[in-house]
């Protein structure tokens, strides 16, 4: 079972879904406050456009991201189960993109003309649009068929394996737990065997 730190390094859309790991009392939200969202954005900074680095989200920025996360998870879980994705989730991803479309802002950097994608609107809406776009890119790519759920008991994390034998979201989290459990099963005392 993952800890309280978000699992990162998967495609951005899966990293977003993985901000709701399973815990002892059910699922935990690792981006439920502006501060925790800022911490997650800092972890993802290298993969985000400059406009989202070092930002200070507010409470109003959380709902659009949570909606996109729910839509992405609904689509991925349906696909994992061999079912058609919910139409409402697909529509929600389209709507999130429509709320803050990227346009190429033309500028001059002192030596050449530049064209940087920019979005307008509140931070949460712009970030939700970016993450919905990342989700659509993943969901329409051939790799979507390789997405897996961690095989560790109680873990709900999703990953895109780089190796076909990968079974856990993280070798240091669930992989270690599974290896320890297997070791215990092999070496536990048998019933009536002395202990």
How would you explain this protein's 3D organization?
With 195 residues, the chain is mainly α. The protein is built from six helices and six strands, in the order H-E-E-H-H-H-E-E-H-E-E-H. The protein has helices at 12-17, 34-43, 62-80, 87-99, 123-139, 171-187; strands at 22-23, 26-27, 103-108, 113-118, 148-149, 158-159. The strands form three sheets. It has a two-stranded antiparallel sheet. Helix 3 packs antiparallel against helix 4 (87-99), helix 3 packs parallel to helix 5 and helix 4 packs across helix 5. The two termini are 30 Å apart. The model has no long low-confidence stretch (mean pLDDT 89). Residues 146-187 form the Zinc finger CGNR domain. This is Putative RNA-binding Zn ribbon-like protein.
């Amino acid at each position: 079972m993952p800890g309280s730190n978000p699992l990162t390094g998967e495609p951005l859309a899966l990293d977003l879904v993985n901000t709701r790991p399973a815990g002892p009392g059910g699922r935990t939200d690792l981006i439920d406050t502006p501060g925790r969202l800022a911490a997650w954005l800092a972890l993802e900074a290298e993969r985000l456009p400059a406009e989202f680095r070092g930002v200070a989200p507010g409470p109003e920025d959380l709902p659009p991201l949570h909606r996109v996360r729910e839509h992405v998870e609904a689509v991925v879980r349906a696909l994992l189960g061999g079912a058609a994705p919910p139409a409402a989730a697909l529509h929600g991803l389209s709507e999130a993109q429509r709320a803050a479309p990227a346009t190429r802002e033309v500028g001059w950097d002192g030596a050449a003309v530049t064209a940087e994608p920019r979005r307008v609107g509140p931070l949460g809406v712009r970030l939700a649009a970016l993450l919905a776009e990342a989700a659509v890119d993943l969901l329409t790519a051939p790799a979507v068929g390789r997405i897996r759920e961690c095989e560790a008991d109680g873990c709900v994390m999703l990953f895109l394996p780089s190796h076909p034998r990968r079974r856990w979201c993280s070798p240091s989290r669930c992989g270690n737990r599974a290896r320890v459990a297997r070791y215990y099963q092999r070496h536990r005392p048998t019933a009536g065997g002395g202990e």
